Amino acid sequence: MGHTSLDKIIALQRNPANIRNLCILAHVDHGKTTLADCLVASNGIISTRLAGKLRYLDSREDEQIRGITMKSSAISLHYRNDQDYLLNLIDSPGHIDFSSEVSTAVRLCDGAIIVVDAVEGVCPQTQAVLRQAWLENIRPVLVINKIDRLILELKLTSQEAYSHLQKILEQVNAVTGTLFTSKVMEERAEKEKKEEEVEEEEKESKILSGDQVYDWSAGLEEADDSQLYFSPDQGNVVFASAIDGWGFRPACRTRPLADFGFAIKSFHIQAVEQVKGKKQLFVQLVLDNIWSLYDAVVTRRDKEKVEKVIASLGVKVLARDSRHSDPKVLLSAICSQWLPLAQAVLSMVCEKLPSPIDMTAERVEKLMSVGPRRFDSLPEQTQELKRAFLQCSSGENDPLIIFVSKMFAVDTKTLPQNRPLTQEEIAQRRELARQRHADRMAADQTAAESRSQEGQPGLTLKDSQPEEEDQQTFVAFARVYSGVAKKGRRVFVLGPKYDPAQGLSMMPEGSSAWDRVPAVPHLSICSMDSLYLLMGRELEELDEVPVGNVLGIRGLEECVLKSATLSTSPACPPFIPLNFEATPILRVAIEPKHPSEMPKLVRGMRLLNQADPCAEVLIQETGEHVLVTAGEVHLQRCLDDLRKRFAKIEISASKPIIPFRETVVRPPKVDMVNEDLGKQHKVAIIHQVKEEASQGRPSDTLHVDHSGLVTLTTPNRLATVSVRAIPLPQEVTCLLESSTELIRTLEQVNMSLREGKSLDISPRTLEAIAGLKAQLESLLQGRKWRNAVEHIWAFGPRRYGPNILLNLVEGYQRPSLWQCLGRGDQSGEAGAQAAGMRDLDNSIVSGFQLATLSGPMCEEPLMGVCFSVERWDIQSAALPQHQDSLKEDSISHGALTDSRVEGSSETWTAGLCQARRRPQAASADCYGPVSGQLIAAMKEACRHAFQAQPQRLMAAIYTCEIMATAEVLGRVYGVLGKREGRVLHEEMKEGTDMFIIKAVLPVAESFGFADEIRKRTSGLASPQLVFSHWEVISSDPCWVPTTEEEYLHFGEKADSANQALKYMNAVRRRKGLYVEEKIVEHAEKQRTLGKNK
Asked: pTM of the entire structure?
């Protein structure tokens, strides 16, 4: 097919039924970009000879050097089958560091091409992209690529290759089946929950009688999974070799080809059981022919047989191809005409993937349901937008809805209005310039004559304009879900926290973005200056883009940071946030080499933060500018962008800032030499901690019990707090860490209830909160955890972290954290809260939040610690004294209750900003000296209670998946052992000589790991690092020898390597904290065998 004109693509954009929005997803180096090259070459944009070598959609220089894709790129292709189709193709990265780019691509698509290497099979990133496609409700098709490796590298026969391909299909379907099963289980559980509510009495009688047996398989039998799995019989699988330019899709649709064989003697197709030798029809008619072609062209180079093949296939091969020294050139020339890859893939895409009109109602409701609110609780005008989604409305009166998944930067010179002109455009402009020049000369002559008559000299001033520097322009990567996007149109930009109900109530009815509207929270207005058609490395300017198309928008950089929802209707809700697989964890501090260039660095980091969907830019309390990335490759790309594109200055980056967590563990039963630890030794350690804690504070304000209970009195002696630190079970810590969003939602609900507001919560959210509570109750078992879940005061840090504050104060019954599960009348709840909440209750919570945000070991956040408040006394003189200091006549209990810091404030400073807007008396009461001293006392009590228990550091851990051959297995183990990694298991991929090693590796030891392992194995092993979890470092960083056996074993100094102490001192040194270390231990003169001089 020849090159498609821009006018043809614009015409195709108006028919959403024939539009296919798809992305290519795969593990790294499985052939995504090579496949994309073959599809691009089918439109005449690049030569078919360069497909796979040019890597057209990898437009960055570092992408070409490294040979991997780092950003998602889009291109529009035309394909003609029975009808004309427009394919908006997005090529995405496969490296785990850039999985955020995959998320931005998947959100804009309706389908996906999953590419799997025929040798490596299903890899970790293959599972990740299948999961991302499933979460976004898009339909996938499968391309099994690199089949030529089975022939040339593994030397498999066609029958062995058939069995190998079957196993790959089974692996991919197993991943899809697991995702499908989990969804059916959830739906089945929701259905059963509703039935229980309707027939509660009958259910109770059945449970009491013991007759009920729950059958989970019932839901799976009823669910329709006919279109779920990949199978050649369904036509959603293509077998290909993209580098050689061929691919095919089996045409049998009635019964599988594997069920039949070809009987040579009778020349009949029979069931495979009846054919001698049991060779499947797929092997005989398909694979054998491909194997024989490779054997003739590449292996044996049999010219006679090649000529016969060319004649029988009826293909035309150029003489230079047949004489070429590389046999792959001749092979590609034959195969690209015999089995064209682009035709097989594009026909499958047009037939099997849905169009924008086929978007399901389930996906629409999921996109529009943000936070705890359910879809049917949204305003009626918002629910009416669902019809516009499903119908792909593009009328003049239909609302415009656009989702921006990311912002990407392009050089201003490369924009269509700034690019070099063609010969025709140059000729047209030359003619216009001549005409303007003639008009100008005539006007100047007329003006000169008039001036000569008046006697005034003529002066011509020419403004000198400095040459514009190379600038970056941000273009939004977006898709139109409803309406028509037009150049220059003004739209509402909806932030992630925008509430359509609030917006509709504050704005006049029928208002648009052109009107002057009042200020609405999280709502802004901007204009779409230019619209672009994305064509890989180039942009084509458009005047309008109809519904269902992917486009680029210029002019949003002031209003959109990373992603946003655009609409002409204020009733539109913001779309749900993107799902990111990789967590940014690698931190470095950035500074300019010349301090005078700091403003350029700040501007460059701001641009980088906007251009990268995963990168984060922070300014720490110390003033450091910190860049947070997903991995080493991602970090290197961000630093290169800062130097060359955004800041354009020389910068220096610090060593990676390694994150740690602090925790406590149960007291050990044995010492460092595996001797039983007696009770006397434990008491000695407690007293040692007590003495250290009391050095900087008068002894009468701090008391440490032998059981670890810390009692602290405020400096004004008006309040006393007793706190005990208890280690949480590991399962509870993992549950809290994985339920961060749910805990944050719970906090928002409780804040609304405290303020007396009504919030309609979706049943799914309530069920999730009830499930979290039930899981905590099942995990916190035992005498010391009795009723602990009901007494949870708060989570921390930032009110949603993996630490718990327990209320064990006698006689203090504050409102439950789980009150939303059994709430009745909301006004009654608010009144009960006002009566049950104690004065300065939030001061205790704020002190706990500060203590968990920075621990005593190295000012890192705490994790897996439970602080139980067992005593909290405030003397009655505290409140009158507080009144006198503020010159207030009286303070009511209600005023104190109203002035407490609300749950939405994550820090004390944010609460202070809220209090300034309240009456002066309430503001002063809440933030007076008693409250401040109570916060400080609670924080110090938590820190001392933490130090009274055995302390440990927690290190961030990567999961490391390594694919290596057998001959380099020992070298891989050597590198892992050197860097304190642990091998969990290894397995050999069946039919290959490749081993898959799964190991864990500390993040602190991972820098340079990928480069070292490639050097040691000569490139035969490639690791994939993904952040997994936090793990306790077993060694005690504060350990000193105390028993006689430890003194004998370790010596008096005990200066042997303590890895946890090294980590702790490194963090303290970086933060400017005191580090206890001796620079010179023995300063006597060095003695040698020579004579002293």
From this structure: 0.79
